[in-house]
Structures are given as C-alpha cells and as structure tokens.
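User: Hey, quick favor. My workstation is busy. Could you predict this chain's structure for me?
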Amino acid sequence: MKTAIAGSDPNWGRILSAAGNAGVAFDPSRTDVHMQDVLVCRGGLAAPFSEEELKTRLDAPECRIRLAVRGKGRGSARFWTCDLTEGYIRINASYRT
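Assistant: No problem, here it is.
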C-alpha cells in the first residue's frame, strides 16, 4: 500500500487488501474508502472519480486515507507512517551504525 501511495497510484484495492489481512473478520461489501477526501470505493466496489485529479492530489506531501466499515460496533483508529521511497532508503543506507 505504501508503494502505491508513494507512486501517487489511487489503487484502493490495495487498501481493501491490507484491511482484509488485518487478522479480523472483514466484509469489503460493507466498506467505503476515501483517498485525499475523494470517495474511491463504496460498498467494496469502485466509485466514480477522476483518476487524473486524484493522482494530482496524491502528489501532496501527506496522504489522508479513510476506511469506513459499516457494522454494529463503533471504533476508530489513526496512524502515521513514514516515507519509504528510494530517497529515504538511500539516506538510511549511506551510513553504518
């Protein structure tokens, strides 16, 4: 999923795949996905959006992804991750500890 984001690829299927591998019961048909505040997936299926416009939004330094799962329970989570692009790897590989 990080590589899709780093490449400004609005591939919401990778997000559903990551959610499905979280080790808990998961029904994609009850799931909506927003990337950069653009609805890209509704009920586990593609939602209409401009891929070109979203690719431009994904070029921003930060990427906001919202995964909404409809069900009986309530919950929320927030996480931050880091840049694992080629530049990050090159910087961290250039020194030894």
